[in-house]
Specification:
Blueprint (H helix, E strand, L loop, with lengths): L21 H28 L32 E15 L5 E15 L8 E9 L6 E2 L21 E2 L8 E8 L7 E4 L9 E3 L16 E3 L6 E6 L6 E3 L10 E5 L12 E8 L2 E5 L12 E9 L2 E5 L6 E5 L4 E3 L4 E3 L14 E5 L13 E9 L2 E5 L24 E6 L4 E5 L4
Parallel strand pairs: 1-2, 2-3, 2-4, 8-9
Antiparallel strand pairs: 3-6, 4-5, 6-7, 9-16, 10-11, 10-15, 11-14, 12-13, 12-15, 13-14, 16-24, 17-23, 18-19, 19-22, 20-21, 20-23, 21-22
Length: 429
């Protein structure tokens, strides 16, 4: 409440037509002056403590509430401020929470986060940390105060300080919310765009049992949903099944046929996709990685129903990758595929998964982005392959290649490591 008091001002002074004492003027002037001083003090205080839509003339706007309580308020369209930490986060990085509610940056190397600027004790202060991952092997370390529930974060080290050892496979963005009620003495970390470790179920096909960088013990994946398709014809000469669509199919995918079957297909039997010839045709084998199943020529309508798997990671990715910079040729006479000179001990390569990149690998009769297994290393510049591997880890029958004198634009990776992924076929109730 204002302390301005005008009671001391005689509003009827001076009296017209009379000889008025100067004392009355002095009294009024003194009261007016005192009240102007009070008004000036109160206006200055309002300027310093009020919230403004814009800065007053000659001043910069500063609506810092200094932790003052605002209660019983209805709000609309509040926004969070952002702050860019930088595009090359590595080493020790200080996150000043007062600079922005959402802070982002790009992780390029091992990074250790420290935090400052939290709100006082007995108030909750929170921040979102949005990290783009350009280096998937980089370690992300949080301060020792961040211990509550962090055991459940994906790919954590299970110790203090909490370290995200590698980004989960396929993750290019990691977003966390960090909060504290005691000015940063203890910090709760919650994943925003990723699941908790104990509940993480990712939709993904595990193409190689060794996995990929970021796979960790305890990971669970389910195969993507692949809709059944209708097969309308089979051909004896090529063993091709013609269908409405092969969308989502992958090599060695288990599949069953339902309805009135034809073409030598037996209803309810599990077959395996051997090759995806076109977006409307494929071949199957009777065993995982086996030869083309012999069909007869026929037409009709039968449903091809893919069989889904659940995958469990029983270890953490530890493979070493042998990169082949170019695949140059293939030969049907030997079933050899030609590669640059392999250095060192080639024995560990045998039975290991290999994946080719580049559409021209089809010239050798192989399919890009499909897992094969090294059957043998007959020379330092040649490999033979298999489409399958036994449960004890031995490559199956050799793939019959086609002859290609020249192959360009094809690379490959061989993954030598533990088979961390196991799978379970899903059956109906």
């Amino acid at each position: 409440m204002s302390t301005i008091n005008t009671n001391g001002i005689n509003v009827n002074y001076p009296v017209p037509g009379e000889n008025n004492s100067s004392e009355g003027f002095r009294t009024n002037f003194t009261s007016i002056s005192n009240n102007l001083d009070i008004a000036g003090t109160e206006i200055t205080e309002l300027q310093q403590k009020s919230v403004f839509k814009a800065g007053l003339t000659g001043t910069l706007i500063d609506n810092n509430m200094a932790n003052t309580l605002i209660s019983n308020a209805a709000v609309r369209s509040f926004r969070h401020t952002t702050y860019n930490l930088g595009n090359a986060l590595a080493g020790t990085v200080l996150v000043d929470t007062s600079l922005g509610d959402v802070q982002m940056g790009t992780v390029t190397g091992n990074v250790i986060f420290q935090f400052a600027g939290w709100a006082p004790t007995n108030t909750e202060s929170s921040i979102k940390l949005r990290l783009n991952i350009s280096n998937t092997t980089a370690h992300i370390t949080f301060p020792s105060q961040a211990s509550l529930s962090t055991n459940l974060l994906e790919n954590n080290n299970g110790a203090s300080p909490v370290i995200i050892n590698t980004a989960p496979y396929g993750a290019s963005l990691l977003e966390y919310e960090l909060s504290t009620v005691d000015c940063g003495n203890s910090i709760l970390i919650e994943p925003v765009n990723r699941p908790w470790q104990t509940t993480q179920v990712v939709t993904r096909n595990i193409v190689t049992p060794t996995g990929f960088q970021g796979d960790k013990n305890g990971d669970v994946c389910v195969a993507p949903t692949i809709q059944p398709t209708t097969v309308t014809a089979t051909t004896v000469t090529s063993n091709i099944l013609t269908t409405t669509s092969t969308a989502g199919f992958y090599v060695n995918m288990p599949i069953k046929f339902i309805g009135t079957t034809f073409g030598n297909i037996v209803a309810g039997t599990t077959y395996y996709v051997r090759t995806i010839v076109t977006n409307t045709s494929f071949t199957v084998s009777a065993t995982d990685g086996g030869a083309d199943f012999a069909l007869t020529t026929a037409t009709g309508s039968m449903e091809a129903s893919p069989i889904a798997y659940v995958y469990f990671a029983t270890g953490t990715y530890d493979s070493t990758v042998t990169s082949i910079t170019s695949v140059t040729a293939s030969a049907a006479s030997t079933d050899w595929i030609t590669v640059p000179t392999l250095s060192g001990n080639t024995t560990p390569l045998v039975n290991s998964p290999i994946i080719f990149s580049g559409a021209n690998i089809s010239l050798a009769g192989l399919t890009a982005d499909t897992t094969y297994y090294v059957k043998s290393v007959p020379s330092t510049t040649a490999l033979t392959l298999s489409r399958s591997r036994t449960t004890v880890g031995v490559a199956g029958p050799t793939v019959n290649l086609t002859t290609a004198a020249t192959i360009t634009g094809v690379t490959a990776d061989i993954f030598v490591g533990d088979n961390i992924w196991k799978r379970i076929q899903l059956d109906t109730f």
